[in-house]
Design brief:
Structural class: alpha/beta
Largest sheet: 8 strands, parallel, barrel
Strand content: 15-25%
Radius of gyration: 18 Å
Distance between the termini: 23 Å
Number of domains: 1
Number of helices: 10
Order of helices and strands: EHEHHEHEHEHEHEEHEHEH
CATH architecture: Alpha-Beta Barrel
Number of strands: 10
Length: 292
Amino acid sequence: MNLERFGMDTTTLAGPLEAKLRAVKAAGFTQIMLNSSDIVGHPEGEEAALAAVRASGLRATGFQVLRDFEGLSGHLHAYKVDVAKAMLQMCNALGSNILLACSSTSAHASGERELLARDLQKLATLAVPLNIRIAFEALSWGRYVSEFTQAWELVQEADRANLGVCLDSYHIIATRTELDGLQELDPHKVFLVQLSDFLWQELRSPEDRIDTARHYRVFPGEGVHSTELGELVRQIDEMGYRGDYSFEVFNDDYRNLPLPMVCERAKRSVKWVSDLVSRRSLPPRRTGTLRT
């Protein structure tokens, strides 16, 4: 594994989009995960944001995130289809070929499996003309899909070539999902792997999962789940996955640190992950952390 297989997420960093792109590039990364707020929230407009991304020379790991798409009906479904079309257009304009879609948390969504699969089919079909793949991710607080095994089952039922799964280490660890389910996945249908850790052992409620996910994630090697995270990465590598890894790190403290400092932490995390995979052995039982 080398640095080219890893990317950072703009939400990890503070400041304007251009400064984030420069810092990530200067740290030696070649790709970056982009968010819709990077584009629509740019003070000079969408075209300026698109131009900045193109000028950076960084490849878009993916574009996120479409929320609460599946399981709706009537006017709510029609509304979400319009949102999906707009996000697909932005994804295409950025040169990204992956749009992330998170499992629904909506109280208005049905849990009927046939409907959920049909909606994912529709989303994938909308993405075909733009040559975009849909990476479906199970949120650990998802209403009907909260584990990657459930997301994979729906992807199989939907059965579209450009529909796959995104594996997020935070959600897998938060739900304590058994890793045996990875053996059931087709590695070619894993479109993205997102990595992060966090600083405490227990997440006692969905609200705790949400708060930790949005404010307190850390880079791999900095948290208390190094053993679980190391085993997850090794199994993903051994199953034949050769795609991108993105650091999905939402952390309020990092947004108050200088950009080069945060990017350097990310680079150390790349080495931590790569060393684990190359050793092909379990990390020490005593949890190790990166030096700050």
